[in-house]
Amino acid sequence: MTIEKFEDLLVWQKSKEFVVRISLVFKDCKDYSFKDQIWRASISIMNNIAEGFERRGDKEFKNFLNISKGSSGEVRSMLSLAYDLKYIDLIQKISLSDSCVELSRMLMGLMRSIK
Question: What pTM did the predictor assign?
Answer without folding.
Answer: 0.94
